[in-house]
Design goal:
Protein name: NADP-dependent oxidoreductase domain-containing protein
Distance between the termini: 9 Å
InterPro entries: NAD(P)_OxRdtase_dom_sf (IPR036812), NADP_OxRdtase_dom (IPR023210)
Number of domains: 1
Largest sheet: none
Order of helices and strands: HHH
Number of strands: 0
Pfam family, one: Aldo_ket_red
Helix content: 40-55%
Structural class: mainly alpha
């Protein structure tokens, strides 16, 4: 799935959770700015089949 939109495993997992509904709020933790930016980018993933 990630290869379709150039996303990593963590981004796909976050995107999946974000699309489950308004009552689901993932709280990812990170120690590095790079991973924070990846987590934020997960909110923009929409076109992966199965989400």
């Amino acid at each position: 799935m990630g290869a379709e939109c150039g996303a990593g495993v963590g981004q796909i997992a976050l995107a999946w959770l974000l699309h489950k509904g308004d009552n689901i709020v993932p709280i990812p933790g990170t120690k590095r700015e790079k991973y924070l930016e990846e987590n934020i980018a997960a909110a923009d993933i929409r076109e992966v089949e199965g989400l």
